[in-house]
Design goal:
The structure holds two protein chains of two kinds. By secondary structure, chain A is an alpha/beta fold. Chain A folds into two domains: about 1-85 and about 175-260, Rossmann fold, CATH 3.40.50.300; about 95-175, P-loop containing nucleotide triphosphate hydrolases (Rossmann fold). Chain A is about 40% helix and about 25% strand. Chain A is built from ten helices and ten strands. Chain A has helices at about 50-55, 80-85, 100-110, 120-125, 125-145, 160-175, 190-210, 220-225, 245, 250-255, and strands spanning about 10-20, 25-35, 40, 65-70, 70-75, 85-90, 180-185, 210-215, 230-235, 235-240. The radius of gyration of chain A is 19 Å and the shape is globular. Chain B is built from 22 helices and 28 strands. In chain B, the strands form seven sheets. A five-stranded parallel β-sheet of chain B has the order 4-3-5-6-7, sandwiched between helices. Classes of the chains: A alpha/beta, B alpha/beta.
Chain lengths: ~260, ~650
């Protein structure tokens, strides 16, 4: 497709099972994510897609299974540790600070990179000042990248949905992640907004080499932009492979794409 | 020295190197990048231009070659113009929002060998039509974003071009100076394509001499200095921008400021606070509409204060600006208003520092014009066309009339032909249309006057008044005069109406298509709790039709009061289900209505208007921004407007 090189496996999930009481959200799922690839997770409603993302990101802790990130097996892990390791995410339902401006919201994405202590930040001197300028520069680069200069100082709550989604992507990008988890980045968007979002996702992947794991409902979008697809149904993996392989997989067709009668 | 210096300053490259010498450290250009305004001094600009010119020469650019420039207002795009002129070539700026097919004609006609594209989007458009433009050899781009995978050998980064140029300059240090010295004042300096209201666009060739004379005349007229700041945000392909952002900047040495992106113009305007400002009426109208919308949402006290002081301003603001006698009490009140309303308002509009503002391109509504002048903004009108380097008439300070376009600019001779057409002569006339001697001969008469095609007359003070395009002035079937533009402009002066098209030539009555302003009407609907899903839905609401009907009926009253045009009252109208759009060829890129195209495309609607039908179903093809096509359909209601009976004076 283009010049980027898909590298080695950086995230390896083995036999993951996740239960909430008696409800089995995920059963014995294994798959891996390679460096620089766009990996999609698809499946019908309630298939366990978001749970899967939450497991990767450390929000949920699976009862069984092993997760290795960069070859290192992970013990119990919390979301902020995932963030420190370079995993950023966006949410299915936008989770931004509605009253804050776009700039400030994206700035919060830099939080893991801030080293100044509380006192320095409160009085804005020393490291805090130096850092702020540096972070602002990074944030401006993100703003430029996502073409949202015109809403830089607008409170997020006043923006249309499609732009809010873009701001959320901006916040995730501000953390300069090596892996980006996108939970339905195109849900509820119109065709034009979807196209824009696709372009941004591909650009992020291409320019920064960021590995992307995304959940999406829109089959057309998935098949166009992802390198490999995992298909879940009722918490089980029923397919895994390139978009073409998945499209021709009998079980996937039956469960997800519908059966021709 | 002074004499030889001024004599030598007869081409734009010479002007540039002159500024680099005398005000080398002063800012020539600014652009907001990554949230911060970046500056280029005149010396920087001269360096960049030299590098670009030498780079072009290295790539084989020859004297007389044309170079297309496509993109938003970016410093390096402006620099490229001068670079091309250094080598005796001709820059051809194109409208950046044109789709590939529209650019095709110009690229073929001008036979461009080189093109400078702003970014990936523009490069893609060029690649799309490249096989139909056999002359095109090189594409240079300014913004490298997304360009990494373009491996075609004829696509170059502008940095690469400049690096090449610097090496060339080092090896041949005398080359560029010699090239600049070869330039003559009556060489063609730029080719601007007319918007093509009628037929195919024509390339208007203008010389250095024409633009410099025109720019200098205007600068002296308004006493412009090198301290002016101007925001360059209008399309580079438009003669107005070329004169104000390129011509006058190089003549006077003032600073041009490029906005961060098309969407940030309002913010950038506020941050820069230009002293000299140019905008078509549409922009002033949008600004006012926004202010009014925000005022309607303001608290009661604020609204009261605003309306009170606006009344004061309407009464005496314009007179104070014109230096006419105004009573002390009134002055005091106006000063108080300045503190409470006009000052903050101007600040919000980014107009606090404006010394001179111009508008042109279309008629400006008297209310709109009065509004800006009354709050102390020295807004003036000018009149001119691409063929005359933007202006032939300017309004002098202190002698502003709402309905005239002022007096002949310095060095311009004006004459009215027997049929009412305005004729122009002076140094700023076009050298000719590119490869179209027939069209050139047609537009310049035997005495050397350019025929503008506009009908107008001089009033008692020698100010020119424009009625309409000479060929657009038609007749109703009863013989009464019908000036569609005139009525449409009146309609457009309502904040709820964005666009209007009137029909009536050779017919027994006048009917109209209306486009609502979705911002203003949307806000109006919201406040009344009227739910709508989009433009088409809103345009079809009975309440909205009622609102528009009121506007139309007010116009009818005005027309009756004007006697001569009483027969042009609008009898029937409809609100179109889609906005007229340049992408659908309904408007020109400068947003002028393409009358004949519209009457063909919407023939069924016109028939329904004149056929007395109460409604009409229509399906229209639309082109989206990315070039795809779709269809919109609607069942349009047709309304009868109240007309007043015409009292015929006994002969």
């Amino acid at each position: 497709m283009n010049g980027r090189q898909i590298g080695d496996v950086i995230l390896d999930l083995q036999n993951i099972s996740l239960r909430f009481g008696g409800v089995k959200a995920l059963t014995n799922i294994s798959f891996d994510v390679r460096e620089h690839e766009i990996r999609a997770i698809i499946g019908p409603n309630g298939a366990g897609k978001s749970s899967m993302l939450n497991v990767i990101n450390g929000v949920y802790h699976p009862q069984e299974g092993r997760i290795a990130f960069h070859g290192e097996e992970r013990r119990r892990m919390e979301p902020h540790m995932a963030a420190m390791q370079g995993i950023s995410r966006t949410f299915q339902n936008i989770a931004l600070f509605k009253g804050m401006t776009v700039l400030d919201n994206i700035m919060t994405g830099r939080i893991t990179k801030m080293k100044a202590n509380f006192i320095e930040q409160a009085f804005y001197f020393g490291r805090a000042r130096r850092e702020e300028l540096e972070h602002r520069k990074k944030v401006e680069e993100v703003i430029d990248f996502l073409e949202i200069q015109h809403i830089r100082k607008t409170p997020v709550g006043r923006l249309p949905y499609g732009l809010q989604k873009r701001v959320e992507l901006g916040r995730a990008l501000a953390a300069e992640p090596t892996m980006l988890l996108l939970d339905e980045p195109m849900a509820g968007m119109n065709v034009e907004e979807k196209q824009d979002m696709c372009r941004f996702i591909l650009d992020v992947n291409d320019q920064f080499g960021t590995t992307i794991v995304l959940i999406e409902h829109d089959m057309g979008v998935i098949m166009d932009i992802s390198d490999r697809v995992v298909v879940l149904d009722y918490g089980k993996k029923i397919g895994d492979g390139t978009p073409d392989e998945v499209r021709n997989n009998e079980e996937v067709i039956r469960a997800y794409l519908g059966v021709g009668h | 020295m002074p004499e030889s210096a001024t004599r030598a300053l007869d081409t734009f490259p010479r002007l540039l190197f002159y500024h680099a010498q005398v005000r080398g450290a002063k800012a020539a250009m600014r652009e907001k990048d990554l949230g911060i305004w970046q500056s280029w001094t005149w010396a920087d600009v001269a360096d960049h231009v030299s590098a670009m010119a030498c780079g072009l020469a290295e790539m084989g650019f020859k004297r007389g070659d044309n170079l297309a420039i496509i993109g938003d207002n970016r410093p390096r795009l402006y620099m490229m113009m001068t670079a091309v002129q250094c080598l005796g070539g001709v820059p051809v700026p194109l409208y950046q929002d044109a789709v590939g097919a529209e650019m095709l004609f110009v690229l073929q006609d001008a036979g461009v060998r080189f093109a400078l594209a702003e970014d990936q989007e523009q490069v893609d458009k060029l690649l799309e039509i490249q096989d139909q433009v056999p002359t095109l050899e090189h594409i240079v781009y300014d913004d490298p974003r997304g360009m990494r995978h373009y491996t075609q050998p004829f696509i170059h980064d502008i940095e690469e071009l400049m690096a090449m140029g610097k090496i060339h300059n080092r090896n041949h240090p005398d080359f560029l100076l010699a090239e600049v010295a070869k330039g003559a004042a009556d060489d063609v300096s730029v080719m601007l394509y007319t918007s093509g209201t009628t037929g195919k666009p024509k390339g208007v060739c203008q010389t250095h001499n024409a633009f410099i004379a025109s720019a200098r005349g205007g600068a002296e007229f308004d006493r412009l200095t090198d301290a002016e700041d101007i925001l360059s945000y209008l399309p580079m392909a438009w003669v107005g921008d070329h004169l104000f952002s390129f011509g006058q900047a190089l003549v006077t040495g003032f600073t041009i400021n490029c906005p961060e992106s098309g969407d940030t113009v309002m913010t950038d305007l506020r941050e820069i606070g230009p002293t000299y400002y140019f905008a078509p009426p549409r922009v002033f109208e949008n600004l006012l509409t926004q202010v009014m919308i925000r005022m309607e949402d303001a608290s009661a006290i604020k609204q009261k204060m605003f309306h009170y002081f606006m009344k004061v301003a309407r009464r005496s603001g314009a007179d104070i600006l014109d230096g006419k006698p105004v009573g002390f009490g009134e002055r005091l009140l106006y000063a108080l208003g300045g503190l409470c309303v006009y000052g903050p308002l101007k600040n919000v509009l980014g107009m606090s520092r404006i010394r001179i503002a111009y508008t042109a391109g279309a008629a400006i509504g008297p209310d709109l014009f009065r509004f800006y002048r009354s709050i102390g903004i020295n807004l003036k009108q000018l009149y001119g066309q691409t063929e005359t380097c933007a202006y032939v008439c300017l309004q002098p300070d202190g002698q502003i009339k709402l309905d005239s376009v002022g007096m002949a600019a310095p060095g311009v001779e004006l004459k009215i032909a027997d049929n009412g057409e305005i004729l122009v002569k002076g140094p700023m006339l076009l050298k000719g249309y590119y490869k179209r001697p027939d069209a050139t001969a047609e537009s310049i008469n035997a005495d050397g006057y350019f025929m503008t095609g506009d009908a107008g007359f001089f009033d008692d003070d020698g100010h020119l008044k424009i009625i309409d395009r000479a060929k657009d002035v038609g007749k109703l079937s009863n013989g009464a005069m019908f000036a569609p533009n005139y009525i449409e402009n009146k309609l457009k002066f309502f904040q709820h109406i964005k666009e209007a098209v009137c029909f009536g030539h050779d017919r027994d009555m006048v009917c109209a298509f209306i486009n609502i302003d979705v911002g203003a009407v949307g806000n109006w609907a919201e406040r009344r709790g009227i739910a709508y899903s989009g433009y088409a839905d809103l345009a079809g609401k009975t309440e909205v039709l009622g609102l528009i009907q009121e506007c139309v009926e007010q116009i009818n009253e005005q027309l009756v009061a004007e006697g001569m045009l009483a027969d042009s009252q609008i009898h029937r109208f409809l609100v179109l289900h889609k906005e007229l759009d340049p992408d659908d060829d309904e408007l020109t890129r400068t947003r002028k209505v393409r009358r004949s195209f519209i009457s063909e495309k919407y023939a069924t609607l016109i028939d329904a208007l004149y056929g007395g039908k109460p409604s009409q179903f229509i399906e229209t093809e639309v082109k989206f921004e990315d070039g795809r096509r779709g269809k919109v359909s609607a069942d349009l209601q047709i309304r009868d407007a109240k007309t007043l009976s015409v009292v015929k004076k006994a002969a």
